[in-house]
Amino acid sequence: MSGPTDASERWAEMLSEWAIPQDIAAAVPASPYFFDPAVFTSAADEAMARVDDTPSDRAAREAVAAGGGVVLDVGVGAGAASLRLGARRIIGVDPNEELLEAFAQRARDLEIETVLVKGMWPHVADQVPQVDVVVCHHVVYNVADLATFAQALTEHASHRVVIELTAVHPMSWLEPYWKALHDLEQPQRPVAEDAIAVLEELGIRPQHERWARPIQMIGESGGAQLERVARRLCIGPDRHDQLRNVLDATPPPVDRDVVTVWWTMS
User: Fold this and answer.
1) Strands annotated E in 86-156
2) pLDDT tens-digit readout, 211-261
3) Phi and psi dihedrals of 234, rounded to 5?
4) Structurally, how many domains does the chain consist of?
5) CATH of the domain at 39
6) What 3-state DSSP class applies to 10?
7) Cα 147 from Cα 145, distance rounded (Å)
8) In a domain, 75, yes or no
9) Element (H or E) spanning 195, and its range?
10) Does residue 229 fall inside a structural domain?
11) N or C: which end of the chain has fewer CB within 10 A?
């Protein structure tokens, strides 16, 4: 495999089109690009309470059983992708120290050995050994150089890599609100098939399965919904009534399509 491909360059170009126009973002004091650790801790707790395996669980668990039980979780968050796989050791990579500690605490409760690596993938890849299985959930839409990112995942897996991503961009659910409040059209791509195209140009032959799961928008439902959605849309308090009317007319979705993508080392 080599460096960035045509498909990877197209992926980066399409991602760049999701940037909020500067004049809209500058009109409000709070950044629309905010991060909520509760989304990740809630996702991990939901995963541990879940009875049935998802396609992502099954693809990874099969390879964990075939190997020695060591998993690398890139973008580990609080462990939603890896804690339920039956691994004996999990190497968690994440840039957020609070989430790494949340993951470590949950792993300790399950008596799973952990190694914590703070940083961005693939910048910290040289700190991580090869493992049996690499998992990476809901990260790739934040990765401009997807070819280099995926190549590093592959190089660290002796058995299998399992990626989970939304079928369309994770912020696509905001499309009707951007249109109604800013008359702004949202991009339609990239989508999961564009990510798969990057993998295929690297010589990877991935399998994939599309399925549906409840959407996780902690803080963007219930009483906090209006303020959180307003912040994402760069809407000040003077337009909250207008946003409330739009949300009443077009409620946010309750589930979304996701895609599990996996490839096995030959």
Assistant:
1) 89-94, 113-118, 131-137
2) 999 887 655 666 678 999 999 999 999 999 999 999 999 999 989 999 999
3) 60, 45
4) 1
5) 3.40.50.150
6) helix
7) 6
8) yes
9) helix 192-201
10) no
11) C
